[in-house]
Amino acid sequence: MAFCKVITVTSYLLLVSYGIGLAQKHTIPECKRSLKEQQEAGDVDSSDLEHYLKLATYGMYKSVIKNRAFSKGKGNPGHKGYVEADHIPPLDSLNRAKKEPDFQELERINPALYDMVMSLENDPRGMKLFAIQVTKHHHGAALSTGISRESQAVRGVLARRIARGEAVPMLKQAMMIAHPFVSQSMRDEAEISRRPPENKCSLSEARTTKIYKKGFLGLIDFNYNGPKVITEEERDELKDYVSQHYALGGNFDKDSIEYQEILETVKRFTPETNSLPRQKGIKKITKRVGKHTIKKQNRHVFPRLARVSQVRPHQKRPKRQRRFGRS
Q1: Are 183 and 142 in contact (CB under 8 A)?
Q2: What is this structure's pTM?
Q3: Among 116, 217, 220, 314, which residue has the least CB neighbours within 10 Å?
Q4: Model confidence at 299: pLDDT above 90
């Protein structure tokens, strides 16, 4: 009897540690149908997906990706490619901070933040840095990721904040550009249109808000309890900040200096104001190479085709000799 009580108490503690209530039941999706098909049929909902995909799991990157095994078996490929671990702040910002002029003083201003940046020399993938598990399409929609010009520019804003040791404003901006709703709102205001990432499953607005709020609160605790990037007072300030601005119906702190700085950076790439002149000395010449038409200025995109296209127009390719017999 005592053994059964121990098992029951242990199970309860495990459920509580994962944030699952005892009375809460979740439908486990099938693996023979896509999650989107099951959602459209009404078999699973956003709550089931959050539990099944372990969304809002946060902590060290290595712990988050380790806790990502979904069901699979013979003739059953499982549900793969639905989630990604999002580093907050982005690794690109941490790496670029070292190139900023103010970085020389960071070790004196905020030694913990300096150690976080320098840790990437031995840990380039950021395995010991903070990450949150989110859906792949939400990660792709965030300004913190991708190769678009506005994404690279806002990551540069964070890099400068990191180099100056401004931990609290940096974390506020890191949360803004990691949030898919904030990112889309900024792009809409700047009239920038980007092809949305493929949406393999759908989450309600309330569920998405809950996931990111939970992850952001975890981010704050991580930076206080772990590397001590922020003080206790700053932790309490940031937790109140998240509860106020990132709850359902929150305004994402749109009137703040941090938000406006990111927005102005994104607006630099509005199509009407971003008519960049062509580089001097580069002519618009196209060549046919097989089935491809490439431009000289695009050689970095098609390096192999560019090498073939370097044959001058007046040079004739040698004709292949017909072989009438075998040697």
Answers
A1: yes
A2: 0.75
A3: 314
A4: no
Q: Give pLDDT, residue 320.
A: 61
- How long, in residues, is the chain? 327
Residue in the structure block whose two tokens are 């998405």? 208
Assess contact for 53 and 136: CB atoms under 8 A.
no
For residue 70, the model assigns a pLDDT of 63
**102, burial (CB in 10 Å: exposed 0-12, middle 13-18, buried 19+):** middle
Residues 6 or more apart in contact with residue 159 via CB below 8 angstroms: 92, 93, 94, 95, 96, 97, 99, 100
* Identity of the amino acid at 25: K
Question: Helix, strand, or coil here: 87?
Answer: strand
According to DSSP, the residues that pair with 84 across neighbouring strands are 134
Residue 231 makes CB contacts below 8 A (sequence gap 6+) with 224
Angle subtended by helix axes 167-178 and 257-267, to nearest 10: 50
Range with the lowest mean pLDDT among 159-168, 234-243, 289-298? 289-298
Cβ atoms of residues 132 and 64 within 8 Å:
yes
For position 5, what pLDDT does the model report?
A: 41
Average pLDDT over residues 61-76: 72
Provide CB contacts within 8 A for 43, sequence distance 6+: 27, 29, 30
176's tokens:
């803004």
Residues 131 and 61 sit within 8 Å (Cβ to Cβ): yes
